[in-house]
Amino acid sequence: ERLCLATHNAGKAREVAALLAEHGIEVVTAGELGLPVPEETETSFIGNATLKAKAAAGASGMVSLADDSGFSVAALDGAPGVYTADWAEQPDGSRDYAAAMAKVERLARHSPDRKAWFSCALVLAWPDGHVEAFLGEAPGEWVWPPRGAQGFGYDPIFVPAGESRTFAEMDPARKHAISHRAAAFRQLKAACLPHG
Ligand code: ITT
């Protein structure tokens, strides 16, 4: 079985590929296939994941899986949320996550409320237009300064509920057991992957 992974983000691709590999599913990414990057015009994780999965299924003719995810801070009314990647975007198109994390700290440091969460929408799209959508969350707190070098994106400033280490301080297997991506994947698995 081969699936198109509708992402151009290497960190995500690594995590989703690892989750799928346990089920014997091989992936090829939209980046590897040279598919165009669709513009994310929706205002929800599910909306953007649907748009990316459908675009990849249409262009590749393969069953395609998209991940739209983000980081939310309670004191910022859920920002950056669907704009999590945009907060890291530089004028030259590259991404600076140290700057994005510093922006979170600058805007949220005055609030005693440190609650934060990651969200992950996973959408599977078939070439015939059928879609299945799943949403997972990981609750926790944001911390400052950033800690750890594993993972990607905003992992160095997020400590999941009940843990003392940031996602970036955990080994990948631990993050995979408790992450927003793992929560969404468990639902996808229950609904779509053959059992036994
Ligand atoms: P694709 O659309 O090509 O998949 P993207 O990076 O643009 O890649 P999103 O629009 O979904 O993806 O943006 C997600 C943002 O949230 C991005 O900046 C990530 O770094 C961040 N993010 C998502 N999951 C994360 C995780 O598990 N740990 C840390 N940061 C994460």
From TrEMBL:
Q: Which cofactor does it need?
A: Mg(2+)
The record lists substrate as bound by 7-12, 69, 152-155, 175, 180-181
Print the keywords alphabetically: Hydrolase, Magnesium, Metal-binding, Nucleotide metabolism, Nucleotide-binding
The record's comment on cofactor binding reads: Binds 1 Mg(2+) ion per subunit.
BP GO terms, sorted: nucleotide metabolic process; purine nucleoside triphosphate catabolic process
The terms describing its cellular component in GO are: cytosol
Which parts of the sequence bind Mg(2+)? 39, 68
| SUPFAM superfamilies for this protein | ITPase-like
InterPro entries named in the record: dITP/XTP_pyrophosphatase (IPR020922), ITPase-like_fam (IPR029001), RdgB/HAM1 (IPR002637)
Its name, as the record gives it, is: dITP/XTP pyrophosphatase
